[in-house]
Design brief:
1 helix; 49% strand; Cathepsin D, subunit A, domain 1; 7-stranded mixed sheet; mainly beta; 3-stranded antiparallel sheet; single chain
Length: 134
């Protein structure tokens, strides 16, 4: 279990979001990502993309992602992230990521890219994000 944030620490949101801490396989620092069951893949912004590029296994071909910010072209890759735990054990899991040089939006944890590969639950009364292996 980890505690999640309702809003961005630097950018207050108009509506609540579920922002959880994540760390890349090759990084020592954590970053925040929005849990988004409608996102097909994990999407990471320029600030954290470099951490993934060092250990990424590319998936051949190009990919296109249509979002409320517009249409983005890039590629898919597989890598590992860790969901750090505040209580219990952290979870290391392989994710599918969409990487585009044009993406400047926030970080997302997508359904096909991650969430379908784990068990997860949200407790909005205490801002807790529960997670574990399938």
């Amino acid at each position: 279990m980890s505690r999640y944030f309702d809003t961005g620490l630097l950018e207050p949101a108009a509506e609540p979001k579920i922002l959880v801490r994540v760390s890349a396989e090759t990084a020592t620092d954590t970053f925040l990502a929005i849990v988004d069951t409608a996102a097909p893949w994990c999407i990471f912004g320029p600030a954290v993309k470099g951490d993934f590029m060092r250990s990424l296994e590319p998936i051949p071909g190009r990919a296109t992602l249509s979002t409320r910010l517009g249409t983005f072209h890039g590629f898919l890759g597989r890598g590992w992230i860790t969901l750090p735990a505040d209580e219990g054990e952290s979870l290391r899991v392989q994710v599918t990521m969409f990487l585009s040089p044009d993406w400047s939006g926030p970080n997302f944890l997508g359904y096909q890219g991650l969430l379908q590969r784990i068990r997860f639950a949200i407790d909005p009364a205490s801002n807790r994000f529960y997670f574990g292996p399938i």
